[in-house]
Design goal:
The complex is a heterodimer of chains A (308) and B (490). With 308 residues, chain A is an all-alpha fold. Chain A is built from 15 helices and 2 strands. The chains are: A mainly alpha (308), B alpha/beta (490).
């Protein structure tokens, strides 16, 4: 029963990706640009879902990991212009290092304090960027001299396949034995410990994996946009949007996070004529979905199969 | 089989702040032996289990599993040294099947294992067949009856073939047929040559299964021997049944509201999911009467009180002076004068003693509140001294007095006391006992007391109900309790 449901989900997903890959032939560069952002957002949200949905830790600061990755890559390119892949690699490593430095003390405290620690980390990063303006571009933002490509279609395909690969890796991980142990650690850490699992070790690894994908996606996005600013990568609002995307899509599903991200970007675009009201409406929709369908979009799609 | 114990605990001590939960505790279990660790609620027996498993760190003492010291190590290490535990409450993985839940317990603690060993599936099946879950392997835990969920917990605990198995309240929530099946499972663990430690409230529930029993009270060991020896032990009898006690019951005919008693509970039933917490419970309390409901932890006392206070949904009827309470909010019931002192005390620990009392007297006019506080300080003199201290810094006994005092600030018509003696030393019990006696003698208040400590519950009671496994099994006046209901209670 479960296997056939999983298989169906996989087939549908593959079909959707194939369709999405053909989009550059049909839609405008503007739409492609939006979808590119949606893909990176989807990765942010999936990485967050691994931590919250599986390890059970609410990370209020996904933008800390993203921001460290993005800014490290951007600053490096700005200062020395090494090959872009090197900048992206450095950004990813920096996000992982930052993640470990944050997670080691944060995982020692329980419950809301973990979330609070991650939130404070975001604020510290934000302050650092604003204060050290000569290095980071401060409030104006950082312009990087290089981009991966000037073509909308190329950028879109990179983002799409990066997202697909991330989804495949994170989804398989969630269904693997490690994913099972992670879920147990998140839901009942005392029992997971009594079953012989080092709960802290597993949660730390979940944090590192989350940091890898967040940092990588952040760095890639810098070389798509050609710039980095607090408002796009670090601000707490961005973090909240990522969290909403993941919860809206359906937590503990990994794939649902992509749905949520695409919905958020599409909805705010569709409602753009309404001006400032558009964000309000998007958030209101998110609130309603979370309150009425806590399983999210993905939960709605698979509900009939999960509870026969 | 060697005679060296598989589990050897010596001098185990655990303190939480000023409270010593476990004091110099020693016990041992050999291979192929079942030891029962019993004690009333708050005696520290569950803490002992957590200390052995490494869920809590002991302050002193030694825990040896198969000869190796594990005290102070984290739970996952202790598990790998050969200990397994069956929790009373656990949260299975609800999105996974029973098979996957069992498989979880078989996985190695490795991050590199991205694909499970295919041999695991055969192991899962073998374990499921042993505990009788083979037919439901592909179902999700939420669709299983309670007894099967317990079996799943056993399956998880024995999956790694532990030499030492700890089981917390093995039979809680099971019917008698299920209990028999579960007993057989535990018996099999003994035949495998494992050392089994059963933790429970009373000897009776585990008597048929255990080889030896260790009894605990307020953190210390008070007796050891066969089930019969422990049941005959003078100290144990005193702890559970109380010594020679004087009762001063007023006859039921002395209360004038015989036709419509102040509180009448009729055919009350409460379910928590699949577990039945109360079954057709009927009782009544007259205005001014002191009624005790005695029963072990898990018998359903708290559920009964929560139903009366409007905190849980129920079938049946609860009437106050003839009028049904159903449909009234918990807040309305409390404002109407039915006030509960919850088992967990629920004080505002970061507020001072005085502030806690002032909160209780919020609705009273200032002068009346002052008078009430003065009267309460007279009833519990220690609270006057502690006025400016934060409630969290009080000892357990002082906190209990404050809880009762805060409830009395609301000038209740009916005061419900849920386990006021929980985890308290005998000297404190005496102080609270005296205060209750004064209430009985000098005020028109009605009291409904829930207790497992009979010594405390009987002297003040006008009438006693015994609650056992969700049902009222005995009702009568306290003088007849020891003779008629005492043995069933041990």
């Amino acid at each position: 029963m479960l296997r056939s449901a999983t298989l169906r989900v996989l087939l549908v997903t593959l079909g959707l990706i194939a369709l999405a890959a053909l989009l550059p032939f049909f839609v405008s560069g503007y739409i492609l640009g939006l979808l590119t952002i949606a893909c990176y957002f989807g990765v942010f949200a999936m990485a967050w879902d691994l931590l919250f949905g599986f390890a059970g830790e609410v990370n209020f600061g996904p933008t800390f990991l993203i921001g460290v990755g993005a800014y490290t890559a951007g600053i490096l390119d700005n200062l020395y212009q090494p090959p872009i892949w090197l900048c992206i690699l450095a950004g990813t490593l920096a996000a992982v290092t930052g993640g470990v430095v944050l997670a080691l003390p944060a995982l020692r405290v329980r419950g809301p304090y973990f979330g609070l620690t991650t939130l404070v980390a975001v604020l510290m990063l934000q302050n650092f960027i604003v204060v050290d303006a000569s290095l980071t571009g401060g409030e104006i933002g950082l312009t990087v001299p290089d981009v991966i490509s000037a073509s909308d279609a190329v950028n879109y395909e990179i983002a799409l396949w990066f997202m697909a690969a991330s989804a495949a890796i994170l989804f398989s991980l969630s269904r693997s034995p490690v994913g099972l142990i992670l879920q147990a650690s998140g839901q009942d850490p005392v029992q997971a410990g009594a079953l012989g699992f080092n709960v802290t070790k597993h949660k730390l690894v979940a944090f590192i994996i989350s940091a890898i994908f967040s940092g990588l996606a952040g760095a890639l996005m810098v070389f798509y946009l050609g710039s980095a600013s607090v408002g796009t990568f670090v601000d707490v609002t961005v973090g909240v949007q990522i969290i909403i995307a993941a919860v809206l899509g359906g937590r503990r599903t990994i794939l649902g996070a992509v749905l949520g991200a695409v919905f958020l970007i599409a909805a705010s675009e569709a409602l753009r004529p309404l001006g400032d009201l558009s964000n309000f409406i998007v958030f209101a929709i998110a609130l309603v979905v979370v309150l009425i369908f806590p399983g999210g979009f993905f939960g709605l799609l698979t509900r009939t199969r999960e509870n026969p | 089989m060697s005679d060296a114990p598989l589990l050897d605990v010596r001098g185990l001590t655990k303190r939480y702040g000023g409270l010593t939960a476990v004091k110099d505790m020693s016990l041992h279990v050999r291979a192929g032996e079942i030891l029962g660790l019993i004690g009333p609620n708050g005696s520290g027996k569950s803490t002992v289990m957590k200390l052995i498993m490494g869920i809590e760190r002991p302050d002193a003492g030694s825990v040896r599993i198969n000869g190796l010291e594990v005290a102070g190590q984290p739970a996952h290490r202790v598990a790998r040294m050969g200990a397994g535990i069956v929790f009373q409450h656990s949260r299975p993985l609800h999105r996974q099947t029973v098979a996957e839940n069992i498989k979880l317990a078989l996985l190695p603690d490795k991050l590199t294992r991205l694909f499970a060993d295919p041999k695991l599936d055969a192991n899962v099946r073998a374990i499921a067949e042993r505990v009788g879950l083979a037919a439901v392997l592909d179902r999700r835990p939420a669709t299983l009856p309670f007894a099967d969920l317990r079996k799943m917990e056993i399956a998880k605990a024995i999956a790694r073939d532990p030499r030492v198995v700890l089981i917390d309240e093995p039979f809680a929530g099971l019917t008698s047929a299920e209990t028999a099946a579960f007993s057989d499972l535990i018996g099999e663990l003994r035949r495998d040559g494992r050392a089994v430690l059963l933790v429970d409230h009373n000897v009776k529930s585990v008597a048929r299964l255990v080889d030896r029993v260790v009894a605990m009270y307020v953190g210390e060991r008070i007796a050891e021997g066969t089930a019969e020896e422990v049941m005959r032990d003078e100290t144990v009898r005193r702890v559970y049944l109380g010594g020679a006690m004087t009762t001063a019951a007023r006859p039921e005919s002395a209360f004038r509201d015989a036709a419509t008693p102040f509180l009448a509970v009729e055919n009350l039933s409460v379910h928590y999911g699949k577990a039945q917490a109360l079954e057709n419970v009927s009782l009544h309390v007259h205005a001014g009467e002191f009624v005790s409901v005695v029963g072990l932890n898990g018998a359903g006392k708290t559920t009964l009180f929560n139903a009366i206070s409007g905190l849980v949904p129920y079938a049946g009827e609860i009437r106050r002076e003839g009028a049904p309470l159903r449909g009234k909010s918990a807040a309305a019931i409390a404002r109407g004068g039915i006030v509960q002192c919850p088992e967990g005390r629920e004080l505002f620990v970061d507020m001072t003693v005085r502030e806690n009392l002032d909160l209780g007297g919020q609705h009273l006019p200032t002068a009346e509140a002052q008078a009430q506080i003065a009267w309460l300080f007279d009833l519990f003199p220690i609270l006057r001294e502690r006025q400016k201290q934060n409630a969290g810094t009080l000892s357990g006994g002082e906190q209990q007095m404050l809880t009762i005092a805060r409830a009395l600030m609301m000038k209740p018509a009916l005061l419900i006391l849920d386990e006021p003696t929980l985890g308290l030393a005998p000297v404190i019990l005496e102080q609270i006992s005296k205060a209750l006696e004064r209430l009985r003698q000098t005020t028109p208040i009605t009291v409904l007391l829930g207790e497992q400590n009979v010594t405390f519950a009987l002297p003040h009671a006008d009438r006693v109900y015994v609650l056992e496994h969700a049902r009222i099994v005995w009702e009568g006046d306290p003088a007849r309790f020891a003779a008629e209901a005492g043995t069933g209670y041990l």
